[in-house]
Specification:
Blueprint: H1 5-17, H2 24-29, E1 35-44, E2 50-61, E3 67-74, H3 79-95, E4 101-108, H4 116-130, E5 139-143, H5 149-163, H6 187-200, E6 211-215, H7 221-230, E7 234-240, E8 243-246, H8 253-263, H9 266-271, H10 275-278, E9 283-285, H11 287-291, E10 297-300, E11 319-321, H12 330-338, E12 342-344, H13 346-349, H14 352-366, H15 372-397, H16 401-418, H17 423-427
Bound molecules: glutamic acid.
């Protein structure tokens, strides 16, 4: 029997519970999502037909604040996936100390098959369907896989129409012209880079002597690859959903970014005429091959469940930084741990996105807008400080970084749960 994503996610919680004193009340409540909404979204298609899409929004836990989390447009979106992603958001927000709980949303579709008009009608229809479930003090969505600032803008606009008042703080990741924050679009990649640099210092390995493979060349993966390239790391492999490219002397990431932007596809980058020259001596590889390359650092920045019990034994990287949400299953984790691989977990590494979302929400509510430098400095301070705290927990308790991140987050969640009164308070 294949276990659900949510029960796999809960296994991480159970493991962390062995290392931290949490009231039974908190641990019991954290096993279940607070509220799960499933909606049908009828959309008038360009050819005149009507199509109904299935959408979800899950609010997992709001003990620390309004719930927060992105909306994904992907063919594999299911209630189980959305609940797991909402679970991760709960721990992510606590791990980096944002005053938010966790949520997630999604619509099951292939967004590449829809026209821009259809996408706009779908985005507005989704907000019509979930409007009573979200709000600036209730639940604040944001972008995730295959959603972008434009879509966030349509959604904010639709919510404002429903409420009959401009409500920029209902959603983050908006275009700058609609109340978005400087630096939000690159924040996940920037935050991951900041954590990576701080953590790799501990291993005394110079950037020029560090080889890196990045799976996923989207909003997060391409930004991390570019920052690592600029900082002198040897980025030897990158891939997107069509496949990857490998060059043992290191890839020219700025050129790859430029061509990916113009062709929308890495395959074209290395297969069409002169462009191949940009990565002279390159090899094309599959996503599976990329994961098992002999590199120092592996960065899964695509989707969940990429490293499992099936391929974990073949992983050669010594350090893994999870930029995607949930790229390693708990069974994969155990194998990597036995091999002595350092895994830096998603709830820390990719928390830069939601951190700048928090900054955006604060700016929308205060009406005072920050410069890109101010956003970058605040992000750096938070990411490095929380990474260092989790590193200390990991060392003090001799546990892997993932378990340490959960322990760190659980301490904050427990504080919020116990402040409301737990069994110990009422019966002792
Ligand atoms: N989708 C992003 C994540 O998984 C960002 C969420 C947000 O900004 O609220 O962390």
């Amino acid at each position: 029997m294949t276990s659900s994503l949510l029960s796999d996610a809960n296994r991480r919680l159970e493991r962390a519970l062995k290392y931290v004193h949490i009231s039974e009340d908190a641990s019991e409540r954290l096993k279940f999502p607070k509220a799960s909404l499933k909606v049908s979204i009828p959309v008038r298609m360009d050819d005149g037909s009507l199509r109904v899409f299935e959408g979800y929004r899950v609010r997992y836990d709001d003990t620390r604040g309004p719930t927060k989390g992105g909306i994904r447009f992907h063919p594999n979106v299911t209630m189980d996936e959305v609940q797991s992603l909402a679970f991760w958001m709960t721990f992510k927000c606590a791990a980096v100390n944002l005053p938010f709980g966790g949520a997630k949303g999604g619509i099951t579709l292939n967004p590449k098959a829809l026209s821009k008009f259809e996408l706009e009608r779908l985005s507005r229809g989704y907000v019509d369907a979930i409007a009573d479930f979200i709000g600036p003090d209730i639940d604040i969505p944001a972008p995730d896989v295959y959603t972008n600032p434009m879509i966030m803008g349509w959604m904010m606009d639709q919510y404002s129409i429903i409420r009959r008042q401009l409500s920029p703080a209902v959603i983050t990741g908006k275009p700058i012209g609609m109340g978005g924050s400087q630096g939000r679009n690159t924040a996940t990649g920037v935050g991951a880079f900041q954590v990576l640099v701080a953590m790799m210092r501990k291993f005394d390995k110079a950037p020029a002597a560090t080889t890196v493979a990045v799976q996923g060349f989207g909003n997060a993966g391409s930004v991390v690859a570019r920052l690592l390239f600029d900082a002198g790391y040897q980025v030897v492999a990158v891939s997107d959903s069509h496949g990857g490219v490998y060059c043992d002397r290191g890839l020219d990431i700025p050129s790859l970014q430029q061509f990916k932007a113009s062709t929308r596809n890495l395959q074209a980058v290395y297969c069409e005429g002169t462009v191949c020259n940009l990565v002279d001596g390159h090899e094309t590889i599959t996503n599976d091959e990329l994961l098992t390359l002999n590199v120092d650092v592996l960065i899964p920045a695509a989707l969940e469940n990429q490293i499992t019990a099936a391929n974990a034994p073949q992983i050669q990287a010594k350090y893994i930084f999870e930029v995607a949400n949930g790229p390693i299953t708990s069974a994969g984790d155990r194998i990597l741990e036995d091999k002595g691989v350092y895994v830096f977990p998603d709830i820390l590494v990719n928390a830069g996105g939601v951190t700048v979302s928090y900054f955006e929400w604060v700016q929308n509510r205060s009406g005072l807008y920050w410069s890109e430098a101010e956003v970058g400095d605040r992000l750096q301070t938070k990411m490095v400080a929380e990474a260092e705290k989790i590193w200390s927990v990991s060392h003090n308790l001799a546990i892997p970084m993932r378990t340490a991140a959960y322990v760190h987050a659980l301490e904050r969640l427990e504080e919020a749960h116990s402040a409301r009164g737990t069994r110990d308070y009422y019966v002792s």
